[in-house]
Amino acid sequence: MASNVNPTVRRRRLGQELRRLRELKGMTAEEVAERLLVSQSKISRLENGRRSISQRDVRDLCGVYEVEDHRIVDSLMQMAKDSRQQGWWHSFGDIPYSVYIGLETDAASLRVYDPQVVPGLLQTRQYAEALIAGALPETAPADIDKRVQVRMRRQERISASENPLRLWTVLDEAALRRVVGNRALMREQLEHLAEQSQLPHVTVQVIPFDMGAHPGLNGQYAILEFPDAADSSVVYIEGVTSDLYLEKANDVHKYSVMYEHLRAQALNVEQSRQFIADIAKEYAENAG
Fold first, then answer.
1. Is 88 exposed, middle or buried (0-12, 13-18, 19+ CB in 10 A)?
2. Residue ranges of the HTH cro/C1-type domain (predicted)?
3. How do residues 163-202 score in pLDDT, each as one tens digit?
4. DSSP 123-158
5. Could you give the CA distance from residue 56 to residue 42 in angstroms, rounded to a whole number?
6. pLDDT score of 2
7. What is the pLDDT of residues 140-149, one digit of tens each?
8. Helix, coil or strand: residue 199
9. Over the range 50-77, which residues count as b (16 or more CB within 10 Å of their CB) and which as e?
């Protein structure tokens, strides 16, 4: 059904197929751009799925690649049509990280490392509100509310009764110690975090300060994996003005290896849950 079509994933899958056809033809992106009288950057954006692909784009590219099988052309044209539909997140207006939301919505598993804050999928509404207001001080209250609503909607992947997102989170102790909002709010957030960690598809580990230097000191990142083997894994790194998406196998491998080191150096699941509970208790005792 059209309502189940994820436009972000469709664009990405279509882009991968168009890249494959170009490489089979032995052409460079520059050569294709020259043939179509467009910029090379447009061809690159079409292939990496970051730009909406029209059916005319597909028709023109299939012409350049001399694709004669009408079934292939029709399939690609349908993918282009699907890719221009709107996902649920579009109803909230302009969301800066909409590409990521599209990927997360279709992912089968997500591995997250965060050194500073509790990841969005495990945040309480109050924590999310205080965090967004503090991180984006010039944001209007209405926009803060919109971001919080989107974050709460994203969490439905965790609570879904069928095929929930498999989430593995590694947190630095700093994410637990940083007082976002106030101590009472932090207590509620950590209690929620501990509760969520008991779900069979959610794993939470903590790296204490006394562990010292570790591979995650360079900052936050996430690794998304998808149910369809045709969709390669993606490393997502959030930025201030733009985000970075790494899809090359070598890049994904390096970040995956780094994540294995983080998991190995972190407290195990039970130790982490107790660690979180102990800090929550500290917040309760010093709420004043």
1. middle
2. 18-73
3. 899 999 999 999 999 999 999 999 999 999 999 999 999 9
4. --HHHHHHHHHHH-TT--HHHHHHHHHHHHHHTHHH
5. 14
6. 36
7. 999 899 999 9
8. coil
9. ebebeeebbeebbeebebeeeeebeebb
What whole-number distance in Å separates Cα of residue 190 and Cα of residue 74?
A: 51
**Six token digits for residue 226:** 């998808």
Give CA separation, 243 vs 152, 262, 285, 288, in Å.
21, 23, 39, 39
- Mapped onto helix, strand or coil, the DSSP state of residue 76 is helix
Which amino acid belongs to residue 70?
Answer: H
In the chain, % of residues over pLDDT 90: 45
Q: The tokens of 202 are what?
A: 């959610």
Handedness of CA 196, 226, 234, 61 (dihedral sign): negative
Classified as helix, coil or strand, 222 is strand
pLDDT at residue number 88: 65
Give me the half-sphere count of Cα atoms (radius 13 Å) on the Cβ side of residue 28. 6
Strand, coil or helix: 58: helix
Cα 116 from Cα 104, distance rounded (Å): 21
Residue 275, pLDDT score: 97
Tokens of 285: 């005792």
Residue with tokens 């010039």: 138
Angstrom CA distances, 150 to 98, 143, 155, stand at 10, 11, 9
Which residues make beta-bridge pairs with 245? Answer: 236
Largest CA distance in the chain: 73
**Residue 261 exposure: Cα atoms within 13 Å on the Cβ side:** 12
Where are the extended beta strands (E) located within the chain? Answer: 109-114, 166-172, 202-207, 221-225, 234-237, 244-246
